[in-house]
Amino acid sequence: MIHLFINALAASAGGGLTYIRNVLPRLALRNDVCATVPLSTSLRDEFTSSSRLNIIPVDVIAGTARRFWYEQTELPAAIRNSRANVLLSAGNFALLRSPVPQILLSGNALYTSRHFERDLRDRGEYALWMDNTIKGTFARWSVSVADCTVAPTEAFAADLRRWTGRNVQAIHHGFDGEIFFGSSEPLAKEVQAKLDAAEGSLKLLFVSHYNYYRNFETLFHALAILKKNIYPRSVRLFLTCKLASGENPGDYRAESAAALVRELRLCKEVIELGAVPYRRLHHIYAASDFYVTPAYVETFAHPLVEAMASGVPVIAADLAVHREICGKAAMYFSPFSAEELAKTVVRATEARGQAAHMRERGLLRSQDFSWDGHIEAVLQLARRLARDKPH
Questions:
Q1: CA 136 to CA 122: how far, in whole Å?
Q2: Phi, psi at residue 287, to the nearest 5°?
Q3: Are residues 306 and 334 both part of a single domain?
Q4: Which residues, 6+ apart, have CB-to-CB distance to 141 below 8 Å?
Q5: Tens digits of per-residue pLDDT, 36-91?
Q6: What is the pLDDT of residues 77-112, one digit of tens each?
Q7: Which domain holds residue 188?
Q8: Based on the number of CB atoms within 10 Å of its own CB, is 313 exposed (0-12), middle (13-18) or buried (19 or more)?
Q9: CA–CA separation, 288 vs 203, rounded Å?
Q10: Which of the residues 80, 104, 188, 369 could staple to 146 if both were Cys, CB 3.0 to 4.6 A apart?
């Protein structure tokens, strides 16, 4: 029996939240592991403590600096008291003085991305640039102090190795079709009405909160080109966010993106669905013809697997991470070329059998991702560290 202490305090949105929601229930069902998990009180009700899973509710700690200080000063004693064998740090930052061997889960490619750094400077977002630089320093230091660092893709692991000079192991995240497709709960009426109104249009989907690195602007410019190229057929782009500051996690300002939509006369074409609960997302995929992502940096990109498992052909920015996840199941374009993105969508739409071929390959590829497989690989690593590096 191995006892993990899982620091999940940073899980609040995106991939981190997806990770916790899939991993914790599976750990609770295993007979060869138990886990102690400090978790924000906002997520406490999603999980039930048991003989295998001890949830410690912690009041929300606002701000990265405050959370980092709390973790460094409070968690070592909690780890000792829990009698855990291994610490799993799931928030990009490691403990300086962990009382047990530590596995760092590194999942933020913004710290290593020159494109993101340049993007922030070009937007005049100097406060965000400084914040990212400081966090990047802590993230780089974290890789050096952890006993082992795990990345969700080999492409990102390679970036971390170049960035830190340290060994980094790649273990793919997973996908659970039973959970993803398991709920028959319908969409909210206003969301379903927006989907129904798009009937007959070419329907594109992008699942993301608004942020800068997902490159919404290139997508909007491509949509304007596509609108002309496929006329008289109409096109609709579904977004699972709102283009308004305060409606998305983080400090990203969405007003310029909303203004661009108006400037390009795409108010009818861009459909802001807002955040859709995970258990209802499969309805959005089912209503779409293609999944499109122009993101210029990623670490794993769970929606790619969700799209492939839903039978939705993927058109993705040409990143090493995207190619690793989708392989030959997707079509690719230069991340900052709106013209190439639009041409790729047209080619995927008009080439005989192309969409069906992508759909078939995507369904097969999605079966390669398993949360059970991910957990087993992490546990094997944890057992080896507990045996070879006892503290």
A1: 19
A2: -90, 0
A3: yes
A4: 94
A5: 988 877 777 777 778 888 888 887 666 677 777 888 888 899 999 999 999 999 87
A6: 999 999 999 999 987 889 988 999 999 999 899 999
A7: 180-366
A8: buried
A9: 5
A10: 104
